[in-house]
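OP here, attaching both records as promised.
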Amino acid sequence: MREFTMKQITVIGSLNYDLVTYTDIVPEGGETVQANAFENHLGGKGLNESIAVARLSKDTEVRMIGNVGNDSFGKELKQALIDAKVDTSYIKTIEGISSGVAVILVEKSGENRILITAGANGELKPSVEDYETYFEQDTGFVLLQNEYPHTIESINWLKSNRPSINISYNPSPFKPEYIKSEVLSKIDLLIVNETEALDVAGSLLSAEEADKFKTRTDESEMNGFKELSEKLVKLINQDNINLVIITMGSKGCLYSSKSTGTAFQASEKVKNVVDTTGAGDTFFGGVVSQLSNGSTIPEAVKFATKASSLVIQKKGAVESIPFAEDVEKL
């Protein structure tokens, strides 16, 4: 195995092309209505996280592992990664299948109706030989989510074969069958929102203990989620970064680690919230980018909080992800 000097962050996940229609009326079967506006955006949690990490990192090799179809959407998705200086060596173009697409109807009330076609994302099932090729070195960070079929297989292979790599996991969209104690024990950085945190508790803990945390959070969000983060940090891997973050929307986030204890980071105050799309992925990428750069956990969380506050002041996900210098100006 050759010597490596550059820090490395790898994202395994989805690339989606979002087709968004804004309408006052959702048509019934056989009905045609006049919509208000149409927009298309690049998306997918994997793509968002890759671009966030690349823009917010310094002196770090950022790579993405994923699939696109042999179509115009796939070319555009891959080019966005190239433009962000993400290594796309392991982005495969799958013949005979479309790129991942999300068709989104946005009603006047703001309610969304979303149809997702996995397309090429559904074929992202790396083999043992693939993992051996991807991960020659046993250092760095890997970001994972649940928008491709083999998340658990990735976790198991990495922890068995490259145990020093920090596995950073956001279990979204939530799949209860993925959340088992033996899986969580292999995670080094777990990041969840309030709903996901309670879902994780419901999957891992006894019904009585999960209900206790639900009651505690109903009584006091801050105290309840503080206690839950302290519970979860004991269930994840103890050997590497060992960090649990529970994001709490406009309030901020709680984080817990064996090295820092538990702390709260308040959100940045924003006068005009335009679009929250991509804020969570940017926060995730911001934390990992800074930890990779050598920042402490409190510094990384504070930086990521500032980065996500910039995202919500612009429209779109990829378009609104800031660069490191934008965050540093705050």
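Record two, same layout:
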Amino acid sequence: MISRAEVKPIGEMTVLVTGASRGIGAAIAERFAAVGMNIVIHYSASHEAANEVARKCMASGAKVLTVSADLKDKEQILRMKEKLLDHGMEPDILVNNAGIAHYGLLSDVSEEEWDELMAVNLKGLFLCAQAFMGRMVSQRYGRIINVSSVWGQSGAACEVLYSTSKGGVNAFTKALAKELAPSGVTVNAVAPGAVDTSMLDHLQGDDLKLLEEEIPVGRLAQPDEISSLVYFLALPESGYITGQVISPNGGWMT
């Protein structure tokens, strides 16, 4: 394991953020760009939204690359990796943020819906970690940060698929952290509570007000409050924190 004194400055590192075209992912990319880090913005289909995030990151002076890939497809992830190599932007930090949600009774869930959600939320995370952790291991330094959810810890009615996938993210995080710790690579999960993003668009009016009243701080989280925690976990001085699932949720779940 290299010493902290030997780690290159964080402003010279590269971070890959999956699902970075909006919401929490966009906030994470912009937070890292603020310190001049090289930013790789991954997106699936939202080309214009990803470009807008890229423009904001470049305005901070960051070197930025946008890449599109279906994270359910190993070949597309490997092509993405080749593109990053070609641009000299293989990541020192991987933020597995991409994910999809599902709301509804389990009795109504189709096998296709189950397969799609698990493929994006779990298989994609596995494939990305597998593709990019090798360089981190070889250089004896790296950070893998997985964006989970409070529902992966407590479960939620009518969100069984999503809760199950995020519980898998948490278990994956704890196990991989033990596997990579001797190589100087930390693996942690951030499990937000209710965040003011499009994932809560299905809640309006009284339903949204009731949710906010359940949260002790009395409001939803803002994406930049989540990105600040992700940034902290990526710092060299956070190297003794690994295998943790940290939930910024306003006191909602303890």
